């Protein structure tokens, strides 16, 4: 596919057919995705490829904690999991939420858990009085390359993070060392329907000249 077509049609795929994603195709996806940039070219990313049904069921179960708080906050008008606005959701609010089954890890042909070695990232924002985001530059280009490459191969997936709320348990489940952080859980498979047109804000709404409050680009 044309690069721009891939970029404009790589949507979040949450429904999959029963088609397999063969190892040779997945290896090709990862082989191309690995050329993503990382800080100092340290390449601190690791991928756990999960096909075992029991492991995927455990990942789905461990996603419930994050999903429960997300839905509870959404229900009371909060921006879920937002670091600038602490949650006012009570224990009763959380208990009242019925979390729909987390099916993506179960329905997908394969699940990838993408990790980053915190021992090699450059977190230049670590001393700022805000949530850290800069270290993500060493892992999320790789994650996005996986989704772009999957789209190019006729497959699709979705970047999920709900399981990260239970990171210690996920690490124990998968044998992930303490020095690594879990950046994403990616269910991949053949889409039931591949989006052909995504909705995004126009350039004039996201880019300005010279200053944040400058004229629209």
Strand order of the largest sheet: 1-2-4-3
Secondary-structure content class: alpha+beta
Mean of all residue-level pLDDT scores: 96
SS element count, helices: 9
Structural Rg: 19 Å
- What gap, in angstroms, lies between the N and C termini? 29 Å
Low-confidence stretches: none
Q: What is the multimeric organization of the chains shown?
A: single chain
Helical amount? 25-40%
Question: In what range is the share of β-strand residues?
Answer: 5-15%
Defining traits:
alpha+beta, 4-stranded antiparallel beta sheet, Nitroreductase
Describe this structure in words.
By secondary structure, the protein is an alpha+beta fold. 35% of the residues lie in helices and 12% in strands. It has nine helices and four strands; from the N terminus they run ααβααααβαβαβα. The chain has helices at 3-9, 23-33, 53-62, 64-75, 91-96, 104-107, 140-152, 167-174, 203-206, and strands at residues 45-50, 110-117, 156-157, 180-189. Strands 1-2-4-3 form a four-stranded antiparallel sheet. The radius of gyration is 19 Å and the shape is globular. 29% of the residues are buried. Residues 12-190 form the Nitroreductase domain. InterPro entries: Nitroreductase (IPR029479), Nitroreductase-like (IPR000415).
